[in-house]
Amino acid sequence: MQPSSGSVSTLSLQETGSSESADSLSTGTVNTFDGLGSLTGKAILSFGKLTLRGVEQLIISRRLTTIATNFPHHNTDNILGLHSMYADLLELSRIHIYPKSTRIRALQILMRQIACRSTTQLVKALSTAPMVEVKLLLSEILSWFDPIRLVKHRLR
């Protein structure tokens, strides 16, 4: 989760007490101690973050599975929630935001739809996306057809 805009400091505990010179530059002195309680707290925090990431990935995976049951479809099909499915696919295909496996699954669903040549709903969804995101998506899709990429992929 992102820190709230009303948070007091964005520095980690390690950064706030890491050096005496940093403390002398600040208006107040902040001391942190590495003891049993702080180490336990750090372990619990790390475990919590890991758990949240796992739950988030599970939710995303289930959403992609649900979306995949409706793809590919025809332009004339009337599917409830199709616009939000496209919005989710475009979101999940964003570079450097989601894990590579998630991005690839979302892109594969979009590519299957494009291969069917029924892209009216995709074009509608792309028309509401920021132009930068559309350019990044198109660049990613076009890179799939790059023969050099295919050779590199086979060598791995």
Automatic annotation (TrEMBL):
Taxonomically, which superkingdom?
Eukaryota
Region entry Disordered, spans? 1-25
What is this protein called in UniProt? Uncharacterized protein
Give the source species. Collybiopsis luxurians FD-317 M1
Species lineage: Eukaryota, Fungi, Dikarya, Basidiomycota, Agaricomycotina
